[in-house]
Amino acid sequence: MTVETLTALAIFAFVSSATPGPNNLMLMASGANFGFLRTIPHMLGISVGFAVMVVLVGAGLVQIFDRFPVIYTILKIASVLYMLFLAWKIAHAAPVRKREDGGRPMTFLQAAAFQWVNPKAWAMALTAITVYVGDTGLGLLAVAAILFALVNLPSVTIWTVAGQQLQRVLTNPVRLRVFNWTMAVLLIVSLYPVLGL
Fold it and tell me: Is 172 domain-assigned?
């Protein structure tokens, strides 16, 4: 991988990681509902989970999808259903004063596993592999995965901090409910460009 290709991949990783999508919207909602510290496992799960996804997709999963396209279609349907479920959970998150009783932030493993049903993550991984990495071997694939993880951490941090800062405004249960419903709707809307619905 040339320096130019690595630079282009880093720019792609930053732009695709920083723009709104399911992960970032859920982090903002988690930051607002649970705070920064309780959202750290969620943040790390996204970064590590996506890096693992890039390696596995590049190591041969793409060829399976090419050979059996129905698997990709099934994955898209499962992704949409799961995203609708997550949107419902965000919309119905407990008000601030009840937060101890209801709801928990996503765990590290849940966030890592979520990458496999996140349409934006699939689009990012497939683009990174087909456009920037190609069939160059596991070493360069690992470099791409590490690059994504390093670029992703500041991005997810910004979205979580933005959500945490909103806690000051969301002390009223009505405002929190409006925020959560807005995040839920945006999560659903984020499916549109990725799936081409």
Answer: yes
pLDDT band at 10 (very low <50, low <70, confident <90, very high): confident
In angstroms, what CA-CA distances link 4 with 1, 11, 58, 77, 130? 8, 11, 20, 37, 16
Instruction: Give CA 19 to chain center in angstroms.
Output: 10
CB-CB neighbours of 12 under 10 Å: 18
Q: Looking at the predicted structure, is the pLDDT value of residue 106 above 70?
A: yes
Q: Domain limits at 136?
A: 3-15+26-96+105-195
d(CA 155, CA 163) in angstroms, rounded, equals 13
Assigned domain for 181 exists: yes
- Decide if 21 is inside a domain: no
Percent pLDDT > 90 in the chain is 24
Specify if 20 maps to a domain. Answer: no
Alpha carbon distance 138, 89 (integer Å)? 38
Give how far Cα 20 sits from Cα of 11, 24, 115, Å. Answer: 16, 6, 15
Distance CA 179, CA 166 (A): 9
Give me the number of domains the chain comprises.
1
Amino acid at 128: A
